[in-house]
Write a structure and sequence with these properties.
The chain is mainly beta and 239 residues long. It has a 12-stranded antiparallel beta barrel. The chain has a two-stranded antiparallel ribbon with strand order 4-5.
């Protein structure tokens, strides 16, 4: 996932995915995860910087892997597909995972259960568990965007009271290569707030993003961010 990420010292023999210009990670908007999971055998890598006028940029990186393919039953695909990931930020590692209950169809959304910011390695962990659904809409052959709605709750490792709330967002394509997106995570967790960003596909498997994070209560905590994302095929599961 994007705002939670890793590149780590990992040696992977991979081939470039050639499936059209990449616009945005299908498994997250920015902070908010979607109901979709990364393709089985796909390795999604992201490197991001976050900065404010008064602070030096901070580097964050992440990796998400399509760990299991989904089943198809009765015309419903993606049943049981799984992705796992690890994120690093200031020498701190956290983990994420998502299990897709079923994939998107013409009349229903993709629905998944998951968690992110799990098992903080250097301090108390604000584990965020969620259920989420996502669906793309169009009218007369014109895209109305991909929309996501979900609910989350936190389970902390230091007995801090849990928090919960709604999360959601949308991604809207701007032509074949570009897109604009906004997402929102409620309450006052460490990830709560609103993100707005633009993304542009610079290659079939890579894209650049730039945007701004709006803190829910403190304008001095707002952040400007930039990111580079890439999808690589490992050859596992035939992908």
């Amino acid at each position: 996932m994007r705002k939670h990420c890793l590149i780590a010292a990992l040696s992977v023999t991979a081939a470039v995915v050639a499936a059209g210009p990449a616009l945005a990670s299908p498994t997250a908007i920015w902070t908010v995860p979607t109901g979709k999971v990364t393709a089985p055998g796909n390795l999604h890598i992201g490197v991001y910087t976050f900065s404010t006028p008064s602070r030096q940029p901070v580097l964050q990186d992440g990796l998400t892997f399509g760990a299991l393919p989904g089943l198809e039953l009765g015309g419903v695909s993606g049943i049981g597909a799984l992705e796992v990931g690890i994120d690093t930020f200031a020498r701190n590692e956290v983990f994420n995972g998502k299990l897709q209950l079923f994939g998107e169809g013409s009349l229903w959304p993709a629905v998944s259960l998951g968690g992110f910011n799990l098992a903080n390695t250097t301090g108390p962990s604000e584990n965020i568990l969620y259920g989420v659904m996502s669906k793309g809409f169009e009218l007369g052959g014109v895209s109305l965007g991909n929309w996501t709605l979900g609910y989350f709750t936190t389970q902390t490792s230091d007995q801090t009271p849990s928090k919960s709330g709604l999360m959601g967002g949308m991604f809207y394509p701007l032509g074949a290569r570009a897109g604009v997106a906004v997402d929102y995570l409620g309450n006052t967790t460490g990830f709560s707030g609103t993100n707005v960003y633009l993304t542009y596909g610079v290659a079939e498997n890579a894209y650049l993003s730039v945007g701004h994070y709006f803190h829910p209560t403190d304008r001095e905590a707002d952040l400007t961010f930039m990111g580079v994302d890439m999808d690589l095929a490992t050859g596992l599961f035939g992908h």
